[in-house]
Structure formats: C-alpha cells, structure tokens
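A protein record in our archive is deliberately plain, so that people and models can read it alike. The tokens are whole numbers drawn from a learned vocabulary of local backbone shapes. For reference, a complete record is included directly beneath this paragraph.
>
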Amino acid sequence: MGSLTALLEGFATAAQPEYLLYALLGVTLGTAVGVLPGIGPAMTVALLLPLTYTLEPTAALIIFAGIYYGGMYGGSTTSILLNTPGESSSIVTALEGNRMARAGRGAAALATAAIGSFVAGTIATVLLTLLAPIIADVAVTLGPADYVALMVVAFTTVAALLGSSPVRGPASLGLGLFLGLVGTDTLSGQQRFTLGVSTLADGIDVVVVAVGVFAVGEALYVASRLRHGPVEVVPVGGTWFTREFWSRSWKPWLRGTFIGFPIGTVPAGGADVSTFLSYAAEKKLSKRPEEFGKGAIEGVAGPEAANNAAAAGVLVPLLTLGLPTTATAAVIVAAFQSYGIQPGPLLFTTNSGMVWALIASLYIGNVMLLVLNLPLVKIWVKVLQIPRPYLYAGILLFAALGTYAVNFVVDDLVVLLVIGVVGFFMRRHGYPVAPLVVGLILGPMAEEQVRRTLQISEGDLSALVTSPFAAAAYAVLALVLVLAAVVGVRRRS
C-alpha cells in the first residue's frame, strides 16, 4: 500500500504543468533522435547532460527518461519506412516492417509498432512499480562483498555479450576501468595517471567521456559513412486498423512484453537481445511461418513490444542497485551523479519523491508517445530530410559548448577531442563503447567496495566470495559463461 501511495504522490508531482512540459520535451526529442539514423538516446542524453545543470534533478531526469522511451518508439519509423534502424534495438523491426511498407502495408506496420510499444511500455512500467521497491528493500541488506559480486557480474556480462569478438568487449571495459583510475586516490591522497596535468587531478569527468564517445565519436563515425544523394523513404500506404490487424498483433504484444522486461533487468541483456528472442519466438509460434521474411506483422509487433518492455526493465537495476545495463542507462547514472545522487537501494528512501515522480512520468510519457507517433508520422518522416552535414556540425558544436560549460576549463575540450577520436576508432573497428562508460562509472564504485570489504575482513581475500549472496552470484555467472561457451562451440561445429 505504501508503494501505491507513493506512486499517487508521484503522479501529483508529474502532473504539474511544468513537469508535463518537460515530459513532452523529452518524448519529442527522443522520438526525433530515434527517427534519425545514427543518433540514439545515449548520444542525446550525453549531449544534454551539461545543458540541464540549471534544471532541478526531477525535471532533468524526467526529460532523460522521456528521451529514452521516445528513442525506442522513434527507431521503428526509420526501420519500417527507410530500412535503416535508428537504434540497434530496431534492427529486427526492419526485417519485416520494411517488407510490409514496400507491399503497401506501411500504415499497419507503423500502427502495430506504436500500439505494441504503448502496451508493452505500460505493462512493463507497472512491473517496475511493483518490483523496484521490493528489490530495493532486499538490496539494503547486501554487504560490500555482495556489491562487488554484482559489479563483477555486470562487468563480465557487459564485456562478454557486447562486441563482435570475445576480445573487443573486455578491451573496451578495460579502457573504461583505466579511465576511472585517473585522478587522486581517495585513500592515499596520491595522484594516479594524471601525467602531471592539474585538471586530471580530480579525475576525468564522466560527462566529458559520455559526450566524447557518444556525441563526438558517433558524429565523426556517421559522418565518415554518409551516403550521398537523396534519402529514399517508402510512402505510408494501406489501412491503419483492420480486424486481422488486432487478431494477429495482440498476442505478440503480450509475449514480447514478458520476454523483454526480464531480459532488460539482466546486465547486458537490454533491448537488442530481447528483440531477437521475441522475433524467434514469433516465427516459431506463428500459424503463417511462410510469411516471415516477406512482411509478417507478428515480426513487427513482438520485437517492438520487447524493445519497449526491455527499456523499463533496464530501469530496475539502475534505480535499485545503481547498475547500468545499457549505454543509455550508463549515461543516466552519470546524470544522477552530476546532481550528487547515487542510484541504489537508498534512493527510494533518500529521494523518494523524485523517484516516484520519475516513474509516474513514464506512464504519462507513454500516452504522449502514442499520440505523437500515430497521427504525426508524416512529420517524423520529414525529419529524415534534414541535411546530415548541418545535423552533425550542430551536434559537434553543442558537444563542445556543453562540455566547456561543465567546469569552464579549456582542458576539458582537449579531453573531449581525445575521447571523441578514441570513440570514433572504437566504432570504426567494432569495439563497443557501452562497456567503456560502464567501466568508468562502476570502476571507482567497485574499488571502494573492495577496499571496504578488505577493511572489514582485515585483509582476508576470501571475504569477497564467502557471503551467501556473493557465492550464488559467482556460481550463476560461471554457469552462464559455461553455457555460452557450449552454445558457441555447437554453433561453430
């Protein structure tokens, strides 16, 4: 009953005109960046981080959550009409959605994507509302060694599941952990890896790194691969809603929701994995398997529902444990930290009003997104016509201005440029950038928890693995790694 009361208070806050405008701004920006190929929610949140310091935390986080949800919605428009996923999680939607559009059923594809996103987002937010306080209560009882185990699980799964090879993910994670060591050691007071640069004595700002890899690096990478000539957009054709539309869509919406949400809560699960699993499930359960690959509506409905359900699932470990499981979640953690707020089990106690206003804004944002996506789809198609040189030049300009505004130090611009070039080469050679940001954010936290564990145990290393929760976490991690290796061997054979 306490959670229901807190949620109602959150709605009272989120329904204020000021916060409604912030939610509308967030979902509108999110939809726009989801539509544009190569610009995702992670880049947009990173770009806006320095520009939102004048806002109060609740307003800024409502905007960022709206961008996150809106990006998941908007990616389907580009996938269906352009066959170019705006987000990696929309790749599966392009498989069937673009075929439907080319067959004159683009309206049905856009409708099932939008309504499926709304249904899944709403159900998943209800599950977030119910589960988050329970997990937070359990997380309060965890000790330092248990948090070390959770972070090791996050590090391992993020590094193992992201990247095109077993080496690239851990390499990106290692770079992030190294960047997290730069600065002054809080225990000894000695500087580490600062190269004598006084600006680095306080460490490398997470905001600078996030803007560098997601905005500057991504802009350079996309600009290096720009296609010349006009963008070919398939016209929206066909009927929006028919009886067959509803009969073939509602089950995939529900299945996608309950596939996407639990996978979103797992480190490195996220929307990418859930959409592929949902597509495979729909293909296996379909009464018309021969239509898959030719424009099956189930292949759009299920993955789009899984996509948005996973987005809500990602917020569970973020809010209750402080563990980001996707790139966008990692940048949102940086947003929390920029306001001096640490996501985790105490968040529901120390910042209860802000958290519940954020959750309430997700319900409101879902309704706004449904209204924005169906009637205004032709306007979003016009966004695709923005000249790419102007677009990415603007991104680089705002990235530089926003980074300078963080500390008003020119050295931050040098760090931004270096990190941006590193991000460009990482993207070009297939190194995922999400593990880098996760390592940078969680690395110092993991170091602090390891030291705390060893202080309590008087230097006994076995204390890191002997607690029941930590031992269970490591056992599950080992089992997952073994199963992944077996599956990999079978695929190669």
Notes: The chain has a mean pLDDT of 81. Residues 31 and 438 are 25 Å apart (CA to CA). The chain has 20 helices and two strands. The chain has one domain: 2-492.
